[in-house]
Write a structure and sequence with these properties.
The complex is a heterodimer of chains A (284) and B (369).
Chain A (H helix, E strand, L loop, with lengths): L1 E8 L9 E8 L4 E5 L6 H8 L7 E6 L2 E2 L11 E4 L11 H9 L9 H7 L15 H11 L7 E5 L7 H16 L3 E6 L2 H7 L2 E6 L2 E6 L1 H8 L3 E8 L2 E8 L3 H13 L1 E8 L3 H9 L5
Parallel strand pairs in A: 3-8, 3-9, 6-7, 7-8
Antiparallel strand pairs in A: 1-2, 1-4, 4-5, 9-10, 11-12, 11-13
Chain B lengths: L1 H15 L2 H19 L8 E8 L2 H12 L8 E7 L2 E9 L3 E6 L2 H11 L2 E7 L5 E6 L6 H10 L4 H10 L14 H32 L1 H6 L5 H28 L5 H25 L3 H23 L13 H12 L6 H27 L4
Helix pairs in contact in B: 1-9, 2-7, 2-9, 7-9, 7-10, 7-11, 7-12, 9-10, 10-11, 10-12, 10-13, 12-13
The chains are: A alpha/beta (284), B alpha/beta (369).
The structure holds adenosine-5'-triphosphate (ATP) and magnesium ion.
The site of magnesium ion has 4 residues of chain A, from α1.
């Protein structure tokens, strides 16, 4: 569904790349997670794939269309939910979706049905200028489904939403995926990525560090994390070490040898911990 | 179809916004000013040119009569220019008029024609009778014309005969100048209709940029040019409506509205494409304001020249508002040149298309995530 090879992108058109030599493939029906800290190049990559940013270097195809010269027809198959919600504040929720539905050549969904789906039922006739941030974000998300896309780009669909609503959004994504929709999901939220994604890519500073399925990653890192509480300079410190990475093993040995250990036990690694271990970077 | 939906949406947005009404209210204010504040002819005092084609004593008698009304009962020797020539004149200023006494009929005629004022020649005819010849502009009120007709007749018996014997000859044909109120219309229409469109278009785009909706449009099966064009349609609609609000009540049905519509549409298209292009370089109105302001000032230069008949340098004709003004003027002139507005329209259409094409590329290239 998506094929990307040697993608580079620079906002300043020089060697200052926001995205460097990015390559990956997304199979049809897959949920592909794009995970990385702020400024990693997630939105940039997604922008190139949806034609918002011009392809500078590398090859990419989406839903069978070459990104080098995008045909407008491609967008009949694509849905895109933006990181920053962008709806007309002077139009009501329903007007926003109705107008948007007329911009496609394919059958579109009923605006009211979509508004209800994202929990905005009853608010369809309110101008979105009066919506809260989260409500606008949900409407932007709802709008991305209007043309029944088979390729769905979601940039931070759950950011800024309360956990209950985020869980609803997650269920909607899962449901659509069950019907065959391919999903490219950009997120900070490791729990959602963990539950939804068939495969994830870790991206830091514009470079992909790793692509694998969360399951395999957890098997690999599995119970191979050790959480240690120890005393250093009179303070209690808590640290997690991998038992398969040489650097961690050395550090752990040193601590056991030099420090007073309070507790020590193995634990199942979360996707977030794996990310930190692999990339050496936090997710914020 | 997508274009139509976009146009409908833009109309809804415009009707819920602020600029739409600003332009229409502006047009109404201009109309009110035109109708109630600008007299058909501006100046309260009139200027006249006189030539006494009389023997010296005759000249003196008439001059002294006029001098009695002079504010300081003295005349002043001045030089006055017309048609590239300089004429010597004796200026007498009364509280109602400035009277220039010149030395030839040619001077009267040239001055009257160039400065659009009344001229008169007094001479003796074959029977040694005083003979008056007036140079009028053609748009003087009927009252004044009738007054002149009867002024020199003592008895009503001979009045009819004398009036019929008066010789009225048009000197320039195919040319009926506009009165002051009508003459003010072209710059007002050009500004409130067409050039305002540039500013309003830029404002519309900045509103959309703030909301990020262009990006949402860019990931649909509809093209960015349709999005831009639907906005242009809205601006054209308002500039046509405001152009007609200003023109129709003053000009009535005496002008070619087809031609007016054409020029309003093409100049509006040009101006709004220019507005789009400017907006493509900036993210908000505040940052773009300097450029918009400069362009508006530049566009105003031809309208200054428009009101100063003697100042009309060649370079001014390159400024787009020059052909706009002249085009609108030819349309409202009773015997105006039809070719001029047609050629100007073709020019604005072409320039508009070029600007629009550049803008379209720029908008596609400057989208962000
Ligand atoms: N419009 C822009 N102009 C210049 N640089 C930009 C622009 N947008 C993003 N960048 C830069 O490109 C890099 C990648 O940004 P991008 O938005 O792709 O990150 P991201 O992974 O989506 O981050 P976030 O999680 O905060 O959304 C960053 O260094 C950012 O500063
Ligand atoms: Mg982002």
């Amino acid at each position: 569904m998506i094929k990307v090879e040697g993608l580079y992108y620079s906002y300043s058109n020089d060697d200052n790349f926001a995205v460097k030599d990015v390559s990956f493939e997304v199979a049809e029906g897959e949920i592909f997670g794009f995970l990385g800290p702020s400024g990693a190049g997630k939105s940039t990559t997604q922008g190139i794939l949806t034609g918002l940013l011009q392809l500078q270097k590398g090859n990419a195809s989406v839903a069978g269309y070459d990104i080098k010269n995008i045909s407008r027809k491609m967008f009949n198959k694509i849905g895109m939910s933006f990181e920053q919600s962008n709806v007309y504040s002077k139009m009501t929720a329903k007007e926003n979706l109705s107008f948007y539905s007329k911009l496609f050549d394919v059958e579109t969904r009923d605006p009211i049905e979509l508004i209800n789906l994202v929990g905005l039922g009853g608010k369809e006739n309110i101008k979105t200028g009066e919506f809260s941030k989260g409500m606008k974000h949900r409407l932007t998300f709802a709008r991305s489904m209007i043309n029944n896309p088979s390729m769905w780009f979601l940039d931070e669909p759950t950011t800024g939403l309360d956990p209950a609503i985020a869980a609803d959004i997650k269920d909607i994504i899962k449901e659509h995926n069950n019907k065959g929709v391919t999903v490219f999901l950009t997120t900070h939220n490791m729990f959602i990525a963990d539950e939804l994604c068939d495969r994830v890519a870790f991206i830091v500073d514009g470079v992909i560090k790793l692509i694998d399925s969360p399951k395999i990653l957890k098997l690999q890192y599995g119970k191979k994390l050790v959480e240690v509480e120890y005393v250093q300079d009179g303070n209690v410190k808590k640290e997690t070490f991998s038992t398969i990475m040489q650097k961690d093993k050395d550090l752990l040995n040193q601590i056991i040898a030099d420090k007073e250990i309070l507790t020590m036990h193995t634990k199942e690694a979360t996707l977030e911990e794996i990310f930190i271990k692999v990339t050496g970077r936090g997710l914020v | 179809m997508k274009l139509l939906s976009s146009f409908k949406k833009e109309l809804i947005l415009a009707s819920r916004g602020f600029y739409f009404y600003v332009e229409l209210i502006f047009a109404l204010v201009i109309l009110a000013v035109l109708l109630f504040a600008i007299p058909q002819n501006f100046s309260g005092t009139s200027t006249e040119y006189l030539y006494f084609n009389l023997p010296q004593e005759g000249k003196e008698i008439f001059k002294n009569i006029i001098l009695e009304d002079d504010l300081d009962t003295k005349s002043e020797m001045v030089e006055i220019k017309a048609g590239g020539k300089t004429f010597n004149a004796e200026l007498i200023v009364t509280d109602e008029s400035e009277i220039y006494i010149v030395n030839s009929e040619e001077a009267v005629r040239m001055l009257a024609e160039t400065h659009r004022n009344i001229g008169a020649v007094l001479e003796l005819d074959d029977n040694n009778q005083l003979h008056y010849k007036y140079y009028l502009q053609g748009y003087e009120s009927t009252r004044l014309k009738n007054l002149i007709s009867i002024l020199f007749n003592e008895s009503t018996d001979v009045l009819k005969e004398r009036i019929e014997n008066q010789d009225v000859r048009p000197l320039s044909t195919g040319y009926e100048p506009l009165n002051d109120r009508e003459n003010t219309i072209p710059p007002l229409v050009a500004f409130s209709g067409s050039l305002m469109g540039m500013f309003i278009m830029a404002s519309y785009i900045f509103l959309d940029k703030k909301e990020g909706v262009i990006k949402a449009y860019a990931v649909t099966a509809s093209s960015v040019w349709q999005y831009l064009m639907s906005k242009i349609f809205v601006v054209l609609l308002t500039s046509v409506v405001s152009g007609i609000i200003i023109t129709m009540p003053v000009m009535g049905f005496s002008i070619n509205y087809g031609l007016l519509l054409l020029l309003l549409l093409t100049t509006g298209f040009f101006a709004s494409s220019l507005g789009l292009l400017i907006a493509s370089f900036y993210n908000d109105l505040v940052k773009a304001f300097g450029v918009i302001y400069l362009i508006l000032i530049l566009m105003m230069v031809p309208s200054i020249a428009y009101f100063i008949p003697g100042w009309d340098p060649v370079w001014i004709k390159i400024i787009p508002s020059y052909p706009m003004l002249q085009g609108f003027k030819e349309i409202i002139l009773p015997n105006g040149d039809i070719a001029y507005p047609l050629i100007a329209s073709a020019g604005f259409l072409t320039a508009g298309i070029v600007l629009f094409a550049i803008t379209n590329i720029r908008f596609k290239k400057t989208l962000s995530v």
